[in-house]
Amino acid sequence: MKTIKHAIQDYYAEDLAHCYGCGKNNELGHGFRTGWNGDETLTLYKPQPEHTAIPGFVYGGLLASLIDCHGTGSASLALHRKNGHEPEDGAEPPRFVTAKLEVQYLKPTPQHVELRATGQVEEVHPKKFNVHTEVYAGEELVAKGLVVAAVMPEGFGA
Amino acid sequence: MKTIKHAIQDYYAEDLAHCYGCGKNNELGHGFRTGWNGDETLTLYKPQPEHTAIPGFVYGGLLASLIDCHGTGSASLALHRKNGHEPEDGAEPPRFVTAKLEVQYLKPTPQHVELRATGQVEEVHPKKFNVHTEVYAGEELVAKGLVVAAVMPEGFGA
Question: What sequence ranges are listed for the domain Thioesterase (chains A, B) (predicted)?
Fold first, then answer.
């Protein structure tokens, strides 16, 4: 199985790395990891047995979560590169939040198959990116997603 | 705390009740439960401590999951009522799948607060419903959602 070598989530600041979807400091979370694959971004994930919609098929909420974190991670990769950095150079990457999430469910998603989310990042504003995602189960395109990702404001939530 | 008395998910057919979001037969799942509240639908949920985005705030993927299952549950309630049934009369309700999910994240969602998803169901076709959802954390509107829900096809996924 291919793995993501330099996932952006591995380099998020320690106090911003508790995300249930993709935070390395969340032991109970999904642990989504997103890296570059050429000019596209890539997240790989094997759903757990409990992530069921009906027996044999993956829960749509898990696909939404995958697309969400893949989206903010992809936006972070893109802005980091624009700023002259790559994940492995040790600089702290920008952290994004999701303003909007859209998921189209195209086909029932079989369980026990690795999911592959591929992303293309479009800058729409210096602090706002659209991430267009396709999710494949094996060779089959099962979902499409759009994440509108915005740079996390200073003092987020304060 | 208010609870949902006659959640539609309690009456889904046993072999369609394993959903990670809302299936009563999924011990590891969220257990979302959706019922009528007047002419609106209602799902209540208290996020678990691990459902974090950044410390103190709820993970957006959990909100997407809540909106997803609240949407299919609301569509099931609406079609069931149209067919002359209420959840507690023992008839098996129709089961829906999500064709499309949209979530707008309006504000950071504080943790340790019960979430309240309220839904309005719009029939767009005899087998297709739009469910418009608002999610409140306490009195604060934190997210808006749209689910396009379609009656689960016979032999789903076959």
Answer: 56-142
